[in-house]
Amino acid sequence: MSDICEVCGLPKEICVCEDIAREQQKISIAVDKRRYGKMMTIVDGIDPHELDINGLITQLKSKCACGGTIKEGKIELQGDHRTKVKETLEKMGFTVELI
Q1: Domain of residue 35, CATH code
Q2: In whole angstroms, what separates CA 50 from the centre of its chain?
Q3: Is 63 part of any domain?
């Protein structure tokens, strides 16, 4: 037997809860200048209770070939990767806004 999703009641193979959660979130991408002139790409607006934020940061770090972390619910990537992050998140089904 396949597992059943607790939210929608469908089998996990055809569950659409995560896709709906992605479409409903408004994500903003900004660049911040840190100490010694280092640039950081900040991804904000992701609800960690609805999505796997650790899996998402792993995908973004490998796509951008950079380091990063999660602080206060925001994803911080080392360097200026606005366009790569925007393209990657839009392919995943998120609504993205550049700041």
Answers
A1: 3.30.780.10
A2: 11
A3: yes
